[in-house]
Structure formats: C-alpha cells, structure tokens
C-alpha cells in the first residue's frame, strides 16, 4: 500500500455538496451549497482545477452546473456524512480529526444568561448590548455606532454554539478584546455551559455605511478531552503545520507551526510557501472566507467568484505536488447562501484525494468525516484509537 511523506489537507470551509440524510433534524432539507451556487451563474461555476480533479464525479445524479463529469478520473472522490451532533466548524473539524462531538453543545436562541452577562460587564467594566441571535454584519450595522461611541460590547450568537463579541478597534483595543474573550472562555469552562467557541470580532470604519470586520478575528475554542489526530501525529514525531483558523479551533494543541491568515488567498499562498519549505509531515489548511464572508452573508455571487479565485491558486498547489505528496480537499459543513436564515446547513461534504500515482475512482459515501483522520493516521503508520475508517488502500491498485 502506497504511503506518503507529506499530506496536505485543505478544508474549503462550508463548501457542502447537498443535504445530508439527517438534514430534516436541522431544518435543512433542500440545502445544497455547491449546487445552488452553480445555478447562480449562467455558465455554471468556472473552477477548472477542481473540475479536473473530479468534483463533478461526486454526484452524477444531480450534476453541478459548469462542472462536467471527468471520463478519466485522476483522483479518488466521494462524499462524507457528518455524525457529530452539531453542524458548525468545531463539530466538523474535530470530527475530521477523529473526535466527533456526540452531545449537542449549548445554543442560546434567547441570548446568554444574565449571570454570564453580569460577569462579563464586571470584568470588562464595559456595558453589554444586544445579547441576541443575529448575523454578524447586521449586529455591527445596527449597533456599531452606539458601541463605538460608548465603548460597550456587542454580544450576539447564531444557531451555533458561539458567543461573539464585536467591538470597534478604536474604542476597544484588540488585545483588550482578546483578554475579555479569554476571561469568558475560562468562566464558561468552569460552569455547566458548553460553548463551542468564544469569538472576538473586531471591526473598523467611520460609521454604519462603511463598517467592516477587520482581519483580527480570533476564536477561543473549547478543548477536546480526547486525543485528536493532531495530538497523535505530534506524539509520534510527525510535524504538523496549521494554516488559518485551524489553530484556533484546536486551541493550538497538536500543532507545531501556526500560521494565521487574513483571507483565503493568503491561506493558499501560505500553503504554497509551506510546500516549498517542507517535504514531510502534515499541512492542515482552513479557508474560512467561504463561510464568514459569503455563506453567512448570503452572497451566492461572491461565493462562486471566491471559489474561482481559490481554484486559480490551487493550480499552483498542484504544480508543487511531488511523488511524496497526498493532497486531500474537503469541507467541514455546508452554508448554502441561497437558503433560509444565515446559519450553517447540514450537508454532505466532498472528498477529493489526489497524488501523482493515485488510481482514480469514486469511493461513494463515507459514514463519517473521521475517515479523513483515519486515513492520515494510516498513512503515517499510527494506530487509530478513535473513529473512522481509512481509505488509504483505495488510493492505489
């Protein structure tokens, strides 16, 4: 069985490929991130590199517009179901790394408890405003001028297990906002609440007409009580590079080299750079803009255009692939920009595995995202102590 010295995993954050079998439980019947985006373009999505890798071969019963089936597959392709109890980034990424979250994390459809808000106000000496479910940009547009003027904290949540704090960088310095988030992470972890992520959301701009989020977002995630694939890799001497919000999602645990990025294109550039300076180990990449800038904002046009930009960068990645490399492309959940609301959507995610020697085939539906983590462990000859079934043996004859 062929093994590789370097594995590159690129997570196209929120790029789902059709409603999952349990979509009804999440109110997501009919969601289809890639399918609906492709229909928003007269000639379909123009992503030639992912098309060449066989993205269109994953579902031939309901083709993606502009992404034809390849007659001769050069990759192993398929799609994966999620078994975790939720559909946000922490559920998706942890499951990819072998630790599905079996119990739903707390969500806060009526806002956060008064007792928690009181502790935040006392620690920060700042007033909390909003404390409701809201999309991020709406919260900033509706309350940003007030927040900027009085130095308060805009606290909001979504359908996911997140507490987000937005504050203008001129009124609440970024490092102070991070300090407040660390405090909240600590007191939440000491309470009976389970909150997946505390997210700092700094913004800039003069007024509501030009407010925009800055590049200083930072996620403070809960920490897994179980060993993830990243922990097992580092324990066995395998170098792990985390690019993008990977580091925040795993609280930097099991990650040797951390690279934070401000955009998808910077994430791809850092991936290219990592491939040029390393020849061994695991490179784990998250491209969050699909989710944060286009999915949640329900911008199908922008989402499709961003896919094209990333696909163009993918061409450079593929040029650097050596006989020693395995490239895996997948996603962590869906976020259909044409669907109701502004939350994530419960969907299958694509799986594309490419190397220079791979025997192209469709491996169908995988029963858990953890098959990716199991495959990575199998590749590096590390016992899989958790979830998932390796598909490494299906990459060759």
TrEMBL record:
Its cofactor is Mn(2+). Its EC number is 5.4.2.7. Mn(2+) 1 binds at residues 13, 332-333. The keyword Phosphoprotein does not apply. Binds 2 manganese ions. Residues 6-383 form the Metalloenzyme domain. This is Phosphopentomutase. It comes from Levilactobacillus angrenensis.
């Amino acid at each position: 069985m062929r093994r590789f010295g370097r594995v590159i995993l690129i997570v196209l954050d929120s790029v789902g490929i059709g409603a999952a079998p349990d979509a009804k439980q999440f109110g997501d019947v009919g969601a289809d991130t890639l399918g609906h985006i492709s229909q928003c373009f007269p000639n379909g999505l123009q992503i030639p590199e992912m098309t060449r890798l066989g993205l269109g071969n994953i579902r031939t019963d309901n083709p993606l517009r502009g992404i034809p089936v390849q007659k001769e597959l050069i990759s192993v392709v398929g799609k994966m179901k999620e078994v975790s109890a939720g559909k946000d980034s922490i559920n998706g990424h942890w499951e990819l790394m072998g630790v599905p979250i079996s119990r739903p994390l707390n969500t806060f459809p009526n806002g956060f408890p008064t007792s928690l808000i009181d502790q935040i106000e006392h620690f920060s000496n700042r007033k909390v405003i909003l404390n409701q479910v809201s999309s991020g940009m709406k919260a900033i547009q509706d309350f940003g001028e007030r927040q900027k003027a009085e130095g308060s904290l805009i606290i909001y949540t979504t359908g996911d297990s997140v507490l987000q704090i937005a504050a203008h960088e001129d009124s609440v310095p970024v490092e102070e906002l991070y300090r407040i988030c660390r405090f909240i992470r600590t007191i939440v972890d000491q309470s009976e609440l389970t909150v997946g992520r505390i997210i700092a959301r700094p913004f800039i701009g003069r007024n509501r007409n030009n407010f925009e989020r800055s590049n200083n977002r930072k996620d403070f995630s809960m920490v897994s009580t179980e060993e993830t694939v990243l922990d097992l890799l580092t324990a066995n001497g395998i170098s792990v590079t985390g690019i993008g919000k990977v580091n925040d999602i795993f609280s930097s645990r099991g990650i040797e080299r951390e690279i934070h990025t401000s955009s998808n294109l910077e994430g791809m550039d850092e991936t290219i750079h990592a491939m040029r300076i390393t020849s061994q180990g695991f490179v784990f990449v998250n491209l969050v803009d699909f989710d944060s800038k286009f999915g949640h904002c329900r911008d199908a046009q922008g989402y499709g255009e961003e896919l094209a930009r990333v696909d163009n960068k993918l061409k450079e990645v593929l040029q650097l692939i050596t006989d020693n490399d395995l490239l895996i492309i997948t996603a962590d959940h869906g976020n259909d920009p044409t669907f109701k609301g502004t939350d994530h959507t419960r969907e299958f995610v694509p799986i594309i595995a490419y190397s220079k020697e791979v025997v192209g085939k469709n491996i169908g539906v995988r029963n858990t995202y953890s098959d990716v983590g199991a495959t990575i462990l199998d590749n590096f000859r590390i016992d899989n102590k958790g979830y998932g079934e390796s598909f490494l043996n299906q990459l060759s004859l």
